Amino acid sequence: MQQSLREIVESGNDGPVLMMNLNRYTQEAAVGARILWCTPVFGQAVGTQHIDEILAVWYPTHKTFLDLSDAPGAKESYRLRGACVAYAVIHRCSGSNSPLDGNG
Description:
alpha+beta; Alpha-Beta Plaits; four-stranded antiparallel beta sheet; 24% helix
């Protein structure tokens, strides 16, 4: 997926993107942190994929998403994520008509 995102960035046609993160956490994930906001998953209407939470994160551009790995503190964040997240899938969705712009 990173390669296709880089192609979008380099195309000159980069724009808003919404990333849907589906996470399942390890038993060891209880590290004393407090979740301030989340949407838990209560099961699936179709399928059997077990996940604990869905996060929707809007980015102004695909480049912004790709640049996360170079952000200050990213190395530690990825280390902690690796200790807590047993399984994750990130779906790329349209960032247009976001609730943030008043059109969603």
